[in-house]
Write a structure and sequence with these properties.
CATH class of one domain: Mainly Beta
Low-confidence stretches: 6-46
Strand content: 25-35%
CATH superfamily of one domain: Cupredoxins -  blue copper proteins
CATH architecture of one domain: Sandwich
Distance between the termini: 81 Å
Number of helices: 1
Largest sheet: 4 strands, mixed
CATH topology of one domain: Immunoglobulin-like
Shape: globular
Mean pLDDT: 79
Strand order of the largest sheet: 2-1-4-5
Structural class: alpha/beta
Radius of gyration: 23 Å
Helix content: 10-25%
Number of strands: 7
């Protein structure tokens, strides 16, 4: 039979272990016990810079009262630029479908879903000159599609 005193000590030990486990983030050895987690939004892919003399083109991903959309949804870029897809609201991905881009090679793979506001996906423009189509897979039937023109 467990005594009341032993049960009390067991509850104190379990509480102490829970506090220690919740006090620091896993893999953050520099965090002070009980410190708040970092507020920086994680990226879906490591940020990459454009080639020298090129630019970063920002495309926002939205869900709001007007629907699901890329803003802007038509882009003109040059080889060496970087397209930075930035999640504003909703849950979205970016996919350059081979079926929608027949005969095109070097298409970026479908991205994971961006889920946290501020999350970004950088896609370096390495595709040959031409017209390309991309979409958000979960919302393509709702019109969340974009058009990319790559220039020299």
């Amino acid at each position: 039979m467990i005594t009341r005193n032993a049960l009390h000590h067991g509850m104190i030990l379990a509480s102490a272990l829970a506090l220690v486990a919740c006090g620091t983030k896993t893999g953050d050895s520099n965090a002070a016990p009980g410190a708040a987690p970092s507020s920086a939004a994680p990226s879906a892919a490591p940020a990459t810079g454009p080639a020298p003399g090129r630019k970063i083109v920002v495309v926002e991903l939205h869900t709001d009262e007007t629907g699901n959309y890329f803003k802007p949804n038509k882009l003109e870029v040059e080889q060496g630029d970087v397209i930075r897809f930035t999640l504003v609201t909703g849950v979205h991905n970016v996919h350059f479908l081979p079926d929608s881009n027949p005969g095109r090679s070097g298409l970026p793979p479908a991205s994971d879903l961006l889920q946290l506001p501020g999350q970004t996906l950088d896609i370096p423009v390495t595709m040959p000159k031409g017209h390309y189509y991309f979409q958000c897979d979960p919302h393509s039937a709702l019109g969340m599609r974009g058009h990319l023109e790559v220039e020299d």
